[in-house]
Amino acid sequence: MEKVVNLCKRRGFIFPSAEIYGGFRSTYDYGPLGVLMLRNVKGQWWRSMVQLRDDVVGIDAAILSSPRIWEASGHLATFTDPLVDCRRCKERWRADEIGDTCPNCGSHDLTEARAFNLMFKTFVGPVEDDASAAYLRPETAQGMFVNFLNVLQTSRKRPPFGIAQIGKSFRNEITPGNFVFRTREFEQMELEFFVPPDEGPKWLDYWCTERLNWYRDLGIADDKLRLRAHSPEELSHYSKGTYDVEFAFPWGWGELEGIANRTDYDLNAHSVQSGQRLEYFDQGSGERYVPHVIEPAAGATRAMMAFLLAAYDEDVVSGEKRTVLRLDQRLAPYQVAVLPLSRNESLRPLAREVLHLLQPHWMCDYDETQAIGRRYRRQDEIGTPWCVTVDFDSLEDRAVTIRERDSTEQVRVAVGALVDELGSRLS
Ligand code: GAP
Description:
Layout lengths: L1 H10 L2 E3 L11 E3 L1 H20 L4 E3 L5 E2 L1 H7 L1 H4 L1 E6 L6 E3 H4 L15 E4 L3 E3 L9 E4 L4 H6 L1 H8 L5 E10 L14 E11 L4 H18 L7 E5 L11 E9 L2 E12 L1 H10 L5 E3 L4 E3 L2 E8 H12 E6 L2 E6 L10 E5 L7 H11 L5 E3 L5 H10 L4 E5 L1 H6 L1 E6 L5 E5 L3 H9 L1
Parallel strand pairs: 3-10, 20-21, 20-22
Antiparallel strand pairs: 1-2, 4-9, 5-6, 5-7, 8-9, 10-11, 11-17, 12-13, 13-14, 14-17, 15-16, 18-19, 22-23, 23-24
Helix pairs in contact: 2-10, 3-9
Bound molecules: glycyl-adenosine-5'-phosphate (GAP).
């Protein structure tokens, strides 16, 4: 864990936010490599959940949202954690995490637990009163429910069909921590899949399999993944059945994604609150019903952390220890690094030509500092699957060396064939 956190800081994946001011309460900024990798995680989710399907459409709803949404969804009343204060050292804790002893000073003199709402409240406009209150969304899901009719009418979909969304959510977590595992600002990737009421259990099974396979396909080994059913006490207020996709984090199993059968809870709740009938009318059969919802809800930032942890490796190459991120090439920040053998001026024009040849196809890094061996190590450490080296022979034969990250094997390829060659290896 510590090695990955260090690597993230040192190489520009993830920085503590406002670091020059001493940091800001478990918030993080994504650096030049982190932003590329996070985009890739989200891109792969969108590809599998939207692009490759004809029964899912996307939306991008507002982050600032009406209190009426959260009244209907139950978040204003029940999206709370039980909070206790230690009377001796004044630390504040989640009651369900500590039992009857303060982890800081060992005192048993704790206040009664009280419900603490996790939503961030703000005010829209110049007046700070109840009428101008708004909330930063604590989940992207409600944006899909309140747009159910809009999407139904404009997309011409019929159940089973889904609405997908990726975006930021905010929760005033009492105990953020474990790096970006639990933060107050994070990104979610959620699908609300609307199905005929009697098909709920079938689609819950379907999405559990699909989602587990998504993590596997992107490189997380089977022994680091599991599906765990929620016990009845654990279920959220809206759920009739939930499974968590869990990852073996360094501190133990932790949730990557929840897959819930939300039944007709949300559409009914918003129908009551808004006075609009959120239901589906089947013109063929004349049947009218409120669809049930299966919801695979993943965290993009949390998934990125799991992919980094799963990819981290150390091995020995030519008698030298190296750190290597064995990231799937679809998730790696750069797919290719172009490296002139040295800083010699004569290599630069061809190296730049090769870079410009590859840039329209892949995210490329270009680096001419330091000895070539050290530059290979740098690329291994950030997970770049392919390095392309331009050397002095290249000036004569217009061929370059391509080097594979995991095996470190090298092959000579003509510049004219480079795009096809890398294309077949990166496909
Ligand atoms: N709409 C349902 C929902 O939001 P959730 O289990 O509370 O369900 C879904 O959240 C996913 O969002 C989690 O599995 C996790 O990956 C991510 N997530 C939730 N809270 C988070 C936090 N404080 N920091 C980072 N990721 C978080």
